[in-house]
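agent> Task received from the user: take the single chain below, predict its 3D structure, and emit structure tokens. No templates, no multimer pairing.
agent> Plan: (1) validate residues, (2) run structure prediction, (3) serialize to tokens, (4) report one or two observations.
agent> Step 1 OK, no nonstandard residues flagged.
tool_call: predict_structure(input=
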Amino acid sequence: MKTSERANSQPTVSDVARAAGVSRATAARVLGGYGYAGSEARELVLDAAKRLAYQPNQLARSMATGRTKTIGVVVADIENLYFARAIRAITDTANANGFDVVLANTDENVELERSAVRVMLAKRVDGLIVSPASSVDVDHLVEARNLGCPFVLLDRRVPVLKADTVAIDNFPAAREAVGTFVRSGHKRIALVSNSRFEGGQKYLTSPVRERLEGYKAALHDAGIQNDPKLALFGGGNNEQLAQKLRKLCQSDERPTAFLAVTSAVALVILGVLRDVGLSVPDDVSLICFENADWTVAVTPPLTVIAQPIKELASAVTERLIARLQGDLKSQAKETLLSATLISRGSVSIPQLFESRGRDTGNTPPSTS
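)
tool_result: status=success, residues=368
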């Protein structure tokens, strides 16, 4: 009975050591990735481990090293294209460096985020990558830091934390997009988001807040008065956002151009425009953040603001791993990556001009 159980059991460090002809301590150092072992001994141990199909005991390893080789990732919405692509890049980068990933979704809810961080700490993750649901309620992240768990912020800037951050430079991207509308002759330009706006602009997540600020700055540059009614927020509810858009599109002073803060919002806009009988770009021009695959499959293909999501997520992961591997004393660093406006076919001169043009570089005919 004992022989049968032994034959079916997983190979141990001692088994690998015997097969390699080295001491158990040497095999443990090689398999655990700590301490020193000569190159010949390392090759013998790894070859023996492969032949025996050895699988490391993660619990034993974490007890020996104080590390679990896991990274906790806490994001707002795993169904969101932006975060889905980011998670893929985080996982690839972490795995390439010997780390596993534990994922939590918060639905932009601070309480769910607090709970997720507590769970991650209980599982003894080595560090966290977090996309905070709030720029204000961050006490749980401060607590994580005080408990010795380093974290890096993904996509969202929270200056009060003074934390490592990798994000998109949203302000100039939004400013450029609105400038594109202005150069084509648009004056009634709407910004559309599905974010919650309770408490005012300062409570928005940093990407939405910065896009709103870039939108306003471009209007100011063009001498166009900012109309608060043209900044729509759905409160996290697509149907509520659609109702607001429908009402705006059916008004006498409907916008001639829309800036969607995400590709998901752009889909809501397109649905409403279809329902009310307006077309892009003949009746309304449209630009959205995120270069989603579908944006080139519609007619016309949408002008978009492409974000380097893979590069951003890889940089976040590499920064956290650097912290975990000993870079604990350097000051927190903020890295902003540039977005790129890709001009396609969804921007034209508004109807009040007889001559039509497409995308950037178009100016309305002179009325003098």
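agent> Step 4: summary for the user.
Confidence is low (pLDDT under 50) at residues 1-7, 353-368.
agent> Done.
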